Amino acid sequence: MVRVEVAGAGTTADGDDVSRALLALSVDAAHIGTFEIDVATGTLAWNRQMSELLGADPEGFRGELTEAYRYIHPDDVPR
Prior knowledge:
This protein is α+β, with helices and mostly antiparallel strands. It has three helices and four strands.
């Protein structure tokens, strides 16, 4: 078993928790924008970096896929 203390978390983590923490650290350090779409509900969630890359207000985004189309090039939006 591998135990890793995640800096600033004040706790230790195992397995998947370590992987998630390292991924989050890497994504944050590299300023990578990520998103996840729930195709069943048509909702979208993206991280703070994605908001910054798109110039979107992270507090104002409601997670609607149709709303996200405002930030996508018109040639890439389904018709």
